[in-house]
């Protein structure tokens, strides 16, 4: 089994060194870039499995770097992104998730929590890949989910989803017609632990709707059940 590779884009050299030593001791490969431009260049050279991306960078903000990552060609846009955000600033977290981050972690953080989140993101990807080996495509009207290729199309046009959003969509599609709470949805993809303040599932659902609904403001595929959670419609156009 190859060693999972982590790229950290962070201008705090001491923090990056500490994280690098901890992850290396935990069995990961590690590389570091101190700003957004060099981080994007290193990403294309190393093609890591996951990027740890700080929001506050000297040349540009992490949100813009995340946008550029999601626009990269040749499959590089699918790399998992874990954003480091300021503690107590939920808006940064929500915006980060909206533009394509897979997870976030507020600063300051415990190295053990960072490690747990990295492992959770990589585990989701690994389990999805393994399951896809024997899986078949799912079709709901003009919506097609190909678990082998990890792609989603609507009327033949590709829908842009992050790896985590793809897993969320598959989990809901597999349970079409069942009303699921937010906890049940996140548990289905074995995601990170819930926090006291956590709107991430709603943000991801908004992103998925924007990608697969004809009118995201009047969704027909993923319906909100007020006070409970969400349901993926069995019958779709």
What does this 3D model show about the protein?
The chain is an alpha/beta fold and 237 residues long. The chain has 2 domains: 5-128, Response regulator (Rossmann fold, 3-Layer(aba) Sandwich); 135-232, Winged helix-like DNA-binding domain superfamily/Winged helix DNA-binding domain (Arc Repressor Mutant, subunit A), CATH 1.10.10. Helix content is 40%, strand content 22%. It is built from 8 helices and 12 strands. It has helices spanning 13-25, 36-46, 62-70, 90-98, 111-132, 163-173, 182-188, 200-212, and strands spanning 5-9, 29-33, 50-54, 80-86, 103-107, 138-140, 143-146, 151-154, 157-158, 179-181, 222-225, 229-232. A hairpin with a 2-residue loop joins β6 and β7. α4 runs parallel beside α8 (200-212). The radius of gyration is 18 Å and the shape is globular. The protein starts with a strand and ends in a 5-residue tail after the last strand. Mean pLDDT is 86; it is low at 191-198.
Note the main attributes of this structure.
237 residues; alpha/beta; Rossmann fold; Arc Repressor Mutant, subunit A; 2 domains; 5-stranded parallel sheet; 4-stranded antiparallel sheet; 8 helices; 12 strands; 40% helix
Compact overview of the structure:
40% of the residues lie in helices and 22% in strands. It has 237 residues and is an alpha/beta fold.
Percentage of residues in DSSP E strands: 15-25%
How would you spell out the order of helices and strands? EHEHEHEHEHEEEEHEHHEE
Tell me, what is the CATH class of the largest domain? Answer: Alpha Beta
pLDDT averaged residue by residue: 86
β-strand number: 12
The amount of helix comes to: 40-55%
